[in-house]
Amino acid sequence: MLHAVHVDMPSYLSSQRKEEILNQWQEIRKQAEEHLKEWSKPYIPDGLETQFEVSDAPAVEAIIAAAHRGNAWVVMGTHGRTGWRQVWMGSVTTRTIEQAKVPVLAIPPDKSLC
After folding, report:
1. Which candidate in 13, 83, 86, 98 could, as Cys together with 17 as Cys, close a disulfide (CB 3.0–4.6 Å)?
2. Same domain, 38 and 72
């Protein structure tokens, strides 16, 4: 299970402030991983080996890298954006489908697997 959150560090920050932010980010990553584990408990059958990762890479890069490392399927939700909003903002799901060398299952927001 992967959660990707990319934060660009502004170039105008002092090196001391960047260090402070990076230290805070490490704590946030730990908390995000714990939250991911708790959130996913009802969906993961007992005994199924599951790996958890919180990445600070851009979402598409993080998803594809994780999938290719494990030669795994990608299962991801979509926001359901269409038209101009999708073109203007881009679509993580669309770019993942285009770039991944593994199968990608995209689930719209009003659907579920079960």
Report:
1. 13
2. no
Nearest Cα neighbor of 2 from 99, 77, 89, 94 is 77
pTM for the model: 0.72
Structural domain harbouring 97: 57-114
Domain match, 37 and 52 both: yes
pLDDT at residue number 108 = 79
Contacts of 63 (CB under 8 A, 6+ apart): 2, 4, 74, 76, 92, 96, 100
pLDDT tier for residue 79 given thresholds of 50, 70 and 90: confident
Judge if 25 and 50 occupy the same domain: yes
